[in-house]
Amino acid sequence: MQLKGCSLEFRDKYNLSVHMVRHTGEKSFQCQSAGCTKTYATKAALDVHQNTHSDNRRFKCNECDAAFIRKTQLTVHVSDKHTGQKPFRCNWPGCEYQACYLNRLQSHKLRHTGEKPYKCSQCEWTFRLSHHLKTHMLKHTGERPHECPHTACDKRFQSKQAMRTHFKRTHSK
């Protein structure tokens, strides 16, 4: 099974439907923890995320205060933050990019192909990364989810970066 305009193939409808979310950006599973606004494309991804709100992080980093639910998460963290090991290498001719996460390598490879699999449902814009589509969608909804942390300021922003820039320029003098 295959989507029109996509090079990937799937064995069944379930895996195809999970993959379709990459193109639509739809994330209908929302975390219900207080103060958390994270949303996910699948129930499985939401379940993994919800563990971050629990206290059973038994895999602790020896280098910093980070702690994880799974040993594999700790291994990737140590590799990324402390040892600098990047086991995933780009096989594009002439490219020396390396990543500590497989999904970062997969996103990087889209730079070579020019593929932008995330399409806005409201306009013709397409994006290489799903979080770029998510940020773009805020332009259509008008939503401003990022609140300035300064107690005397009630400004809100569409992106964390815009909020940080505002905070530095306005409140860090």
Structural write-up:
The chain is built from six helices and ten strands. With 173 residues, it is an alpha+beta fold. The longest helix has 13 residues, at 71-83. Among the domains are: 40-84, Double Stranded RNA Binding Domain; 88-115. The mean pLDDT is 83.
Properties at a glance:
metal-binding, two-stranded antiparallel ribbon, Double Stranded RNA Binding Domain, two-stranded antiparallel sheet, GLI_C2H2-zinc-finger, DNA-binding transcription factor activity, RNA polymerase II-specific
Topology at a glance:
Elements: H1 13-24, E1 29-30, E2 39-40, H2 43-50, E3 59-60, E4 67-68, H3 71-83, E5 88-89, E6 98-99, H4 102-113, E7 118-119, E8 126-127, H5 130-141, E9 146-147, E10 156-157, H6 160-171
GO molecular function: DNA-binding transcription factor activity, RNA polymerase II-specific; RNA polymerase II cis-regulatory region sequence-specific DNA binding; zinc ion binding
InterPro entries: GLI_C2H2-zinc-finger, Znf_C2H2_sf, Znf_C2H2_type
Protein name: C2H2-type domain-containing protein
Low-pLDDT stretches: none
What letter string, H or E per element, gives the SSE order? HEEHEEHEEHEEHEEH
The CATH architecture of the domain at 40-84 is: 2-Layer Sandwich
CATH topology of the domain at 40-84: Double Stranded RNA Binding Domain
The CATH superfamily label of the domain at 40-84 reads: Classic Zinc Finger
CATH class of the domain at 40-84: Alpha Beta
Number of helices: 6
Give the overall shape, derived from the CA principal axes: globular
Q: What would the average pLDDT be, to the nearest integer?
A: 83
Protein name: C2H2-type domain-containing protein
Pfam families: zf-C2H2
Domain C2H2-type: 1-28, 29-58, 59-87, 88-117, 118-145, 146-173
Keywords: Metal-binding, Repeat, Transcription, Transcription regulation, Zinc, Zinc-finger
